[in-house]
Amino acid sequence: MLNRVKSYIESEKLLPANGTVLVGLSGGADSMVLLHILQSLGYSCIAAHCNFHLRMEESDRDEKFVRNYCLAHNINLYSIDFDTIEYAKSNKISIEMAARKLRYEWFEEIRKKTASNAIAIAHHADDNAETLLLNLVRGTGIRGLTGISAKNGWVVRPLLCVRRSEIENYASEQQIDFVTDSTNHENEYQRNKLRNQVIPLLSEINPSVVQTLNDNAERLRNTFRVYEQFVEEKRKLIVEKRNDEFFINIELLKKEPEKDTLLYEFCRDFGFHPDQIKGILQSIEGISGKIWYSTEFVAVKDRNFIIISKIPSNNFCEELIYEDTEIVFEPLKLSFRSFRRTEDYKIERSCDCAHVDATLMKYPLELRRVKTGDSFIPFGMRGRKKLSDFFIDLKLNAKQKANIFVLASDNEIVWVIGHRVDNRYAVTDKTTEILEIKILRD
After folding, report:
1. For residue 312, what pLDDT band results from cuts at 50, 70 and 90?
2. Considering the entire predicted model, what is its pTM?
3. Computed from CA positions of residues 107, 112, 114, 115, in that sequence, does the dihedral angle turn out positive or negative?
4. Could you give the domains of the chain?
5. Cα(first)–Cα(last) distance of the chain, in Å?
6. Kind of pairing, strands 151-152 and 305-310?
């Protein structure tokens, strides 16, 4: 096994001879064997352990085990604690994605700090097979079917050439201690379902299914290189970058027989979901003005182009407004003031100011961007009107539409900010208390 891993490292050019390697050390069999093999091959190893606090006492047990092992074997160890659940909530991502993001960002910090030549992760052939199947089910396209890369930037995976069973046998032969994650046997996680249920069933059809999947991933990886070159050539013809914006030429895109695949590749790097990309594709024959948001980018359908631009970092997509809120600064600078209506009250006639019936507000209010399908009852009207039609009446261009925000109460629009109040919330003769919302200009 040592020779196989050594040959794999050399053939994939993963590590320089006798270099320093930062090893992601969880305490499980895979990472403990990886550390042992790299040391046996003459690499100077530094260990890095993350405590994600997801398994209560077991997480602390793992950290203690790693600390004791590194102390006993004179291995320099870096460790860190993460509040993974809170990070996932605040960033609106899954716990698995949160743990992955936290882990790799911190590993890179330690790599720089220690001047290590690489970050070694203990993924193996079974992990690669599971990843291919998982991506196939999720629908990630050909890119996801290439499996796990042996090398991705500073991250290397020297054990991709061996099976999980071989790692366990090596640990037994070399008497390497390790800890076991009890959640590996639980099927709540998608990867565990594949590992514990799906792959055993596939093995009944093909006993070598893991090797077959790894071979297919390698073939698809080579195919993807050709595919990627083709996409890049088309990108140069169809997509133009102007300052920080990307313009996808609709007429040139429509001429391509595989325009759906090309559009997917043009948009995926900006974080748009496949369903959103389908919507963008369907819109190219329609009217201008449709808008789609990813986490960091906005795509706008203009007459001749799909325009993709970054959402400014100080321009949040939504903000909650509570009853005691007096001022907000993001995504717009607005003031809020409630007051009793008097006999001499006169409504302020300004696009920067809205007066609504305060007693009809259901808190928290939501300050957000326009969503597809949004509608309201414009002041002075009785029937609903889609915001998309309202914007056409105002003759707003695509970029102006993309920068409009609304104030909503209980999922109903109260004010299309800077344009029109909803008739249901307007001040009437029966209104006793008024909520004033003002746009504050610098």
Report:
1. low
2. 0.66
3. positive
4. 2-214 (3.40.50.620), 243-310 (no CATH), 318-439 (3.50.40.10)
5. 67
6. unpaired
Q: How far apart are alpha carbons 418 and 151 in whole angstroms?
A: 51
The answer to whether the beta carbons of residues 162 and 4 sit under 8 Å apart is yes
Query: Token pair for residue 50?
Result: 């993350």
Element (H, E) at 407: strand 405-409
Tokens of 98: 């949160």
For residue 326 the two structure tokens come to 């007096």
Beta partners for 408?
366, 413
Residues contacting 61, CB < 8 A, separation 6+: 179
Compute the residue count for the chain: 442
Identify the pLDDT of residue 276: 86
DSSP-derived 3-state class of residue 321:
strand
pLDDT in tens, 262-273: 999 999 889 888
Written as six digits, the tokens of 150 are: 């042996």
The token pair that represents 160 in the structure block: 């991709």
pLDDT at 395: 83
Q: Can you point out the beta strands (E) in 303-398?
A: 305-310, 318-321, 327-328, 334-340, 353-357, 365-369, 375-376, 385-386
